[in-house]
Amino acid sequence: MNINTNDLSERLFRxxxxxxxxxxxxxxxxxxxxxxxxxxxxxxxxxxxxDGLASRLLSTGISLKSLDLFKLVLDELDDEGILTDLLRxxxxxxxxxxLDTLQNYSDPQTHLIxxxxxxxxxxxxxxxxxTGSGRIFPFLxxxxxxxxxxxxxxxxxxxxxxxxxxxQDQTGGSHLRLxxxxxxxxxxxxxxxxxxxxxxxx
Length: 202
What we know:
This protein is α/β, with parallel strands linked by helices. The chain contains eight helices and seven strands.
């Protein structure tokens, strides 16, 4: 069922602008990473909603970063000096060769997460919104980003918009299903879990 984006935007604005949320109160020892799911068919409208939400939060004086994972991968390829050649010669690549190249340059440990941390910024950033989870599949999965972000010791809340489903079972494991049908491996370590914003209450 499609999400009413006006209602979602209002709920997120109230939550993300709340002083207790920005101060990460009530998280105990868990990392301040949050997942907001949405229907994959709503990709474009959610993108516009996030842009509007970011502008509205900025207008209240909140210092935030709004980042697109796919754009970060393109920036990494550009910095490595291969983006232009890759775009020019794309038709000559086998799919497996192209996938290998994208996986290499979006590797969380050596490429994407270090860039993501740099883009998030320092102590003056209060909130980060991350989109593009669906656009980086299949060369990078969201659960890999979650596991890689944990050692970074984030000092402010990070919200990842995810086109699919995010559930947590009674034994403490977490499950991401991209597009509602592609499951990621079960995340067992509680320090790797993200908080589901659909179930989050201040």
